[in-house]
Amino acid sequence: MAHERSKTHSAASQPRQDRHLRDHTHDTYGLRGKLSDPSACRTCGASYHEGRWTWRPAPVDAFQTTCPACRRAEDGQPAGLVTLEGPFLKEHRAEIEGLIRNLEEREKAEHPLKRVLSIEPRDDGAVEVATSDVHLARGIGRALHDAYQGEVDYGFTEIENLCRVHWRR
Known about the structure:
By secondary structure, the chain is of the alpha+beta class. The chain is built from four helices and nine strands.
């Protein structure tokens, strides 16, 4: 659907295509309304307070729930998939996995929903990293490229609400 720009209204009031796309994107693992405040994840211990998840201890009487990251892990439904390939991977796999775990640790310390769900080797020699957050998947791709160069491709499928990152060297 094309929109014509108005000559009498500011750019901020103009319709934007990305706003229309966002309206149609639905994350099954996102919040389905307001959580009781405070709430606590019965699986990982993260607490929900004033609209965000943190690692601060929740009060004893906090509403018990399961956070979106733990639900994704339980269901085996990542938000991001990072595929690693190439001869460089075979030679430096432990170092690369260390970089990924260090990045996860830094991100997760501030944002409890950003987690690596698994790092699994594939039969073809590639490694697949599943994440609970699309931004963490993109961050892993950027970190690998910054540290080791190579080629990195990013993709997002709205239907699956899944970020795919492919790094090879």
